[in-house]
Amino acid sequence: xxxxxxxxxxxxxxxxxxxxxxxxxxxxxxxxxxxxxxxxxxxxxxxxxxxxxxxxxxxxxxxxxxxxxxxxxxxxxxxxxxxxxxxxxxxxxxxxxxxxxxxxxxxxxxxxxxxxxxxxxxxxxxxxxxxxxxxxxxxxxxxxxxxxxxxxxxxxxxxxxxxxxxxxxxxxxxxxxxxxxxxxxxxxxxxxxxxxxxxxxxxxxxxxxxxxxxxxxxxxxxxxxxxxxxxxxxxxxxxxxxxxxxxxxxxxxxxxxxxxxxxxxxxxxxxxxxxxxxxxxxxxx
Length: 285
Description:
Layout: H1 17-20, H2 24-39, H3 47-71, H4 78-81, H5 83-104, H6 110-129, H7 139-158, H8 166-170, H9 173-196, H10 201-228, H11 235-254, H12 260-277
């Protein structure tokens, strides 16, 4: 008898690598950085800001993937299979991002970096030290992660507005709206998995409401902010927020048609698509 050929591993669709390689997060960050810069009318915005942000976000994204794989002992995950290569690349990109920041970042912006670093450290601290039952949605970690991602993206534009400070950034409608959108997109896949395991209809309905209600409120708030503002430099930003919330709402209602791995990519596209669409939106006074 001849030898039985080994079973080939299932080949993943090419578009899944957007999430597997962690490329979704830096693409979203760079797209929305451009929107922040246009909305706040940043006159001088060097290309180094975009490169440094993209590299820093990718480094953090890969570090989170490696940490998650190690904590869950998931040796079959893409990140753990390629952990050595990813670790080396993450070190290189992290060092490059740090070098660009030190060399090109305005000295007045180091206070921003301190706040951003504290948010990132808090995010990883929750990964390491928070205790929760298996299957629970880590809302605190998603909230801190969304805030860190939004703050890092926004600061790369806001720091080039020398007349404004951190307080104006934190309490701006743009930052708060984007942070909430990031939080909901980040926690969506965990919420969907939790609702699938719901023991009864009441729990399933609660899980549905936890995501759909904030998305509806965010979309409504974005629409109000857009209509209230007469400046066409601001409206496109909130139209993008509204579009992102609407896309996530549609995905929330149709999620049963997709695998969990596909849902992660689609959730990222719900943030990436509005950033791409409104790049070319005409802006005027």
